[in-house]
Amino acid sequence: MSEKTYKDPSISLNRIYTKTGDGGQTRLVNGRLIPKDDLKIEAYGTVDELNSFVGMACVSARELAAAFPAMGRFADTLVRVQHELFNLGSILATDPAEIHPKQPRVTEADVAKLESDIDEMNADLDRLPSFVLPGGCRLNTELHVCRTVCRRAERIVIALSKKEDVAPDSIRYLNRLSDAFFVWSRWVCKQLGTDEVLWEPNRAASGQAE
């Protein structure tokens, strides 16, 4: 049996509250106590927030799978992304000097897989005559929420990289993932036969003729 790339989790959760956070601090994976408003916490906390929204989109995709089988396969992709995001959070929640060689993380392989997914699904999409707005179907809007939260996570991780060493693949992964969410949001509309919502500047109140 081949050796696993990453070490398995070695935790046992039974007691949920520790009261450590009552003073506004929390511990990193390597045990260091830091303030909860530290940029490092903001980085992996936003990745965690993104993971929750990806889970929501995954549930929506599963609910559509009976009528649209491709949605089942897409839900599997979203589950993969959830695991990748947790791997990313593991690295961000650890001081760089304390990272274990077999600690979960995102790598070039994860970035390359996202690029492959993007290319495959984008090949079936029509050329855009304008920017798109969230809408068309619920799953489309959920994926746009994922996209925008992913962009925020990327900005925060870039800010963190100016304070400490951050693996370039971590930033590249978030950048590519936000692109994937954009393509996926368009792809689900096509699969479901719903129209995308295109940006029409003159539909604003100021653009309406009197």
What does this structure look like?
With 210 residues, this protein is mainly alpha-helical. It has one domain (25-199): Cobalamin adenosyltransferase-like (Hypothetical Protein Ta1238, Chain: A, Up-down Bundle). Helix content is 54%, strand content 5%. The chain has five helices and four strands; from the N terminus they run E-E-H-H-H-E-H-H-E. It has helices at 39-64, 70-92, 108-122, 138-161, 168-192, and strands spanning 25-27, 33-35, 132-133, 197-198. The strands form two sheets. The chain has a two-stranded antiparallel ribbon. Helix 1 (39-64) runs antiparallel to helix 2 (70-92). The longest helix is centred in the first third of the chain and has 26 residues, at 39-64. The chain is globular and about 60 Å long. The model has no long low-confidence stretch (mean pLDDT 91).
Number of contiguous helices: 5
Helix/sheet category = mainly alpha
List how many beta strands DSSP finds: 4
Tell me roughly what share of residues is in helical segments: 40-55%
**How many domains?**
1
Strand content: under 5%
Key attributes of the depicted protein:
globular, 4 strands, two-stranded antiparallel ribbon, single chain, 54% helix, mainly alpha, Hypothetical Protein Ta1238, Chain: A, 210 residues
SSE blueprint and pairings:
Elements: E1 25-27, E2 33-35, H1 39-64, H2 70-92, H3 108-122, E3 132-133, H4 138-161, H5 168-192, E4 197-198
Antiparallel strand pairs: 1-2, 3-4
